[in-house]
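for ur thesis appendix - Cytochrome c oxidase assembly protein CtaG. copy paste whatever u need, i formatted it the way the template wanted (i think)
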Amino acid sequence: MSTASRNRRTVLACSAAVIAMTGLSFAAVPLYNLFCKVTGFAGTPMVGTAATGKTSDRIVQVAFDANVAPALGWRFEAERTQIQAQVGVTQTVFYKITNTSSRPMTGIATYNVQPNQSGAYFVKIQCFCFTETTLQAGETLEAPVVFYIDPEIELNRELASLKSITLSYTYFPSKNGQPVAESKGDGNQSKL
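the 3d part is after this line
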């Protein structure tokens, strides 16, 4: 094989590697998000369509944390800061979201569950998270979260002593369905 032929093959192989790595870098975030949603990794609650029908006598305190990014002129709070939830029993908690600014604003909520390991057993049936919400000046919206704690949690020895779970939401301004936060200093916005 000639030197020119080997050089051409090397250039093609390197180009293919660069293209593949670039493609993987763009796919990394969506694939990681999908992985978290499927496995409950990093405190990401599972998404379900209905309760399992199984229950347990175990009671877990579920606390509800509500936060708003400074750039969004909203007030956001849970109707109750905590409840006693029986494992396997469907629960509904409402959040109240109010636009306290003088203009329409659009926001989107991100969430997580603590401790992280409990995310695999915290199953949300209905949620306002990752849905853009536009509120007019002074408008208030009540939004439900319907969830249950999967009875499979009883099989996890690491969570045998778990007595409480915190579901935490943060509302951010959104643009094109994605949360954004203000950059410090230049007034521009950057994606989270």
